[in-house]
Design a protein that fits this description.
Helix content is 28%, strand content 23%. The chain contains eleven helices and 15 strands. GO terms for molecular function: oxidoreductase activity.
């Protein structure tokens, strides 16, 4: 083959020579804006129903001050407390979805002292975050992140961090768990219940748990260390209070972590709630002297006789709201200690979360609809 003719005034192009191609942008044309797709929700003005939508969003602004730009590798899905957002005056047209994240630091602001590009981190985005965790990249203040141990996977980190915070809040800060205590973990096969049982066993407590199905019962019976007693409430016939009193020799349990309770008579409660949840009187009955009841029921109502019974036992009731760490800057140091400890217990195998198979981002909308209706059992994690 011959040589190809070169440009005028130049020699012929040789067979193996490389040709550089330069793209010229037209004069006056606006530079192309890089966009990312993120998941948001929109709440109906006439009802509590929410709709999940993907939206294109512009690339993140320059990282400044104490902020970190994070490439998201995994994001866990949790129910959104729309009532709390309304009470905190955080309503907006489109609210970002996904807060429990794990990823790689891409860039840091000038005042960031704990991280540098390339670090592997995990954390929980604050309630007022402008960025959805279900997006390729987010911007977050460094005080909401901790380093992820190398042996912990992205999905484990994102899928455990919030339940870990909730369990630490319930068993460490609200009920002062210590060796030898007896603990009742309601719905122990749930994502939260699994981590709670593992932390209680690690601290040397005696664990009792309830199971909402035969599958859950079998799962709990396989736990190691073994659970002292598994109470099957799936048929609606189990007497939770009697079982706990029998297991503790009539003394009652020291700590109860519920998964919701019945507040009213049988005629006023939904059938499913009747079947699976204990009545508030049962919880009060099974509590021991000086016991701690940690409840997830934000609308708990105690009548004077209930309060008097708790008074006679010297017992306490505490409300589990893990968002308190996000709402109080004073507690930031304790919060970071909890996040670090959760990662450490994942790394050492103390925490072994119940995670579903990771899903891709495009399935997040449908999966989030299931999670919001509280129809899933295992933790759902989106992997990027």
């Amino acid at each position: 083959m011959g040589t190809a003719p070169g440009p005028e005034g130049a020699g012929p192009l040789q067979k193996d020579s490389k040709v550089a191609v330069v793209k010229v942008q037209a004069v006056g044309a606006a530079p192309r804006q890089v966009t990312m797709k993120g998941l948001y929700f929109q709440q109906s003005s006439t009802s509590e129903e929410i709709t999940f939508v993907f939206q294109e969003r512009e690339s993140l602004p320059v990282t400044e001050d104490n902020y970190v730009k994070l490439q998201v590798k995994a994001c866990a899905l949790s129910q959104i407390n729309t009532k709390l957002l309304t009470e905190m005056k955080m309503e907006k047209d489109f609210f970002p979805v996904g807060r429990e994240v794990a990823g790689i630091v891409l860039d840091v602001g000038s005042k960031v002292s704990f991280f540098q590009p390339g670090d592997e981190v995990a954390g929980i985005l604050p309630l007022d975050s402008e960025d959805p965790g279900l997006c390729e990249a987010v911007r977050v203040h460094e005080h909401y992140l901790v380093h992820k141990p190398e042996k912990v996977t992205w999905t484990e980190a994102a899928g455990t961090i919030r339940d870990g915070v909730r369990v630490y809040t319930a068993l460490h800060y609200l009920s002062h768990l210590s060796p030898g205590k007896s603990v009742l973990i309601m719905d122990g096969a749930s994502a939260l219940g699994t981590i709670a049982i593992q932390l209680a066993h690690h601290r040397g407590a005696k664990v009792i748990s309830t199971a909402c199905s035969l599958e859950d019962k079998q799962c709990l019976e396989r736990c190691r260390p073994s659970i002292a007693r598994v109470i099957d409430v799936s048929n609606g016939k189990a007497q939770v209070a009697e079982s706990c009193l029998e297991e503790t020799g009539g003394l009652g349990v020291d700590i109860v972590l519920d998964a919701g309770v019945r507040l009213y008579s049988k005629d006023d409660e939904p059938a499913v709630k009747l079947q699976l949840l204990p009545h508030k009187h049962d919880i009060i009955t099974l509590l021991g002297v000086g016991g701690h009841w940690v409840t997830t029921e934000e609308n708990l109502q105690l009548d004077p006789p209930d309060s008097h019974c708790l008074f006679l036992k010297g017992a306490t009731v505490a409300f589990l709201n893990d968002e308190v760490w996000n709402l109080s800057n004073v507690q930031q140091g304790k919060y970071l200690c909890i996040l670090k400890d959760v990662m450490e217990k994942l790394s050492t195998g103390v925490f072994r979360p119940q995670l579903d198979e990771p899903i891709p981002l495009y399935e997040a909308k449908v999966t989030m609809e299931v999670v919001q209706k509280n129809q899933g059992r295992k933790k759902q994690v989106v992997q990027f």
